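Writing this down once: the sequence line spells out the residues, with the fold written below as integer tokens. This is how one looks:
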Amino acid sequence: MDSVDYYDFSNNMAKLNRSITSFVNKGLEKHNLTRSEVPYLMTLYKHESVTQEFLSRYYDLNEGTITRALVRLEKKGFIKRVSNPDDKRKRMVSLTDEGLELAVMLIDYQKHIKEQVYYNFTDEEYNQLVELLNKMFENINNILE
């Protein structure tokens, strides 16, 4: 484990994250969307209608952060927020027709990104990378608990 300098590794991870973000955002610009907004659309695509509280718990973000993101998506016409009929204090969030169309397009775009970023990986290498990154994530979460 001492063979790799932690700071070089950490720097490379940060550069990789910035590069992937730049690559992804470039393709999303024409849809007036950023990488940080995509997870919300995809979650709504999978779950149809959820509360803002659900999104806050799901992404482990405070409700203010979720609200700001949802306001942006609502202004762009991708989502709608309505009062929860069971609890008027809560808001339900769902995709608009335009948001649904965009989410379907994003599924294809994500496949394209994967093909570009991992083009010379074997299936075994890709699966191993995912497994190792998940282990790192688990280790960090255990430390933070």
